[in-house]
Amino acid sequence: TTQQSVTVIGLGPMGQAMATAFLDRGYEVTLWNRTPSRADALVARGATLAPSVEEALAANEVAILSLTDYAAVYDVLGPAETALTGRVLVNLSSDTPERARAAARWAAERGATHLTGGVTVSPSGVGQSESLTFYSGPREAFDKHRDVLEVVTGRTDYRGEDPGLAALFYQLGMVMFWTSMLSYWQAIALAKANGLAAADVLRHATDTANSLPGFFAFYAERIDAGNHVGDVDRLAMGMASVEHVLHTNADAGVDTALPAAVTGLFRRGMEAGHAADSFSSLLEIMQKAEA
Ligand code: NDP
User: Fold this and answer.
1) The complex's ipTM?
2) H or E segment and range at residue 257
3) Strands 88-91, 155-160: parallel, antiparallel or unpaired by DSSP?
4) 105-119: pLDDT as tens digits
5) CATH architecture observed for domain 5-160
6) I need a labelling partner for 124 at 20 to 30 A (CA). Which of 25, 188, 289, 291 fits?
7) 76 CA → ligand 1 middle, Å
8) Full-model pTM
């Protein structure tokens, strides 16, 4: 069998981890990065640094893109667009679903195939069998290059032909990741204001986070059934609780932007008449942009 080969464009922490994973699997790897020195350690391991984006694209049918965002993708590929014909761009740069759809059209106009990817792990998870990436775009390209994709993360989840879907699933994860991590910072700020260290609350924070999946499952069923009955969790009870959270933080002299935002949402739910409903009724407010 012939040696498998791939191009990797973009050598931030993610791109470097991806190039390393391909080298580990014996792939022939061609690289390009705006800052060429980021390729040094990979070249020492046998990768080839292409002198131009055109040459990096010409080297292989499949090019993995790992850039900060889609603006960077156009910055890199725009000047080399004549080299795009016949290429499969596996775009693992994160951005919005709308930008992913626009990029897929842009690539198609230049004779290239665009597969959108949303990697759900940090650099240390790249190349691991349990790690997951969402994909969307042409099914045929996904199937044909699955072995390459499974080097990046062992698990792949193909969401459909719409190039925006992988970006959407990525963003579904990120909206939870960022707000959850900020809630953790808030808890640590409160703990520290009370003389505790992050290590002192780690166990409790972990137990709290681990309790969430049970709530996710409980509410998913009710939400999809349109059931916001307040039998276990009246919004009025939640309103009192989030005010306690806000006041505990204010009393401790820490920033209250995050608990105040939460309190604001609950208040809008109360004003909309949901006091006796489940706090899942806040979804009705969140589903529409504020007037
Ligand atoms: P970085 O932002 O650190 O990597 C940036 C890469 O993009 C570098 O190669 C950089 O080049 C290049 N780049 C940025 N702007 C331009 C530009 N205008 N022109 C040319 N090249 C440019 O990101 P990561 O490696 O951390 O992540 C890559 C992607 O993966 C991002 O979209 C990120 O959201 C996503 N992701 C990251 C995770 C993480 O934990 N890091 C986890 C999951 C997804 P140069 O070296 O010259 O600066």
Assistant:
1) 0.98
2) helix 257-271
3) unpaired
4) 999 999 999 999 999
5) 3-Layer(aba) Sandwich (3.40)
6) 188
7) 12
8) 0.92
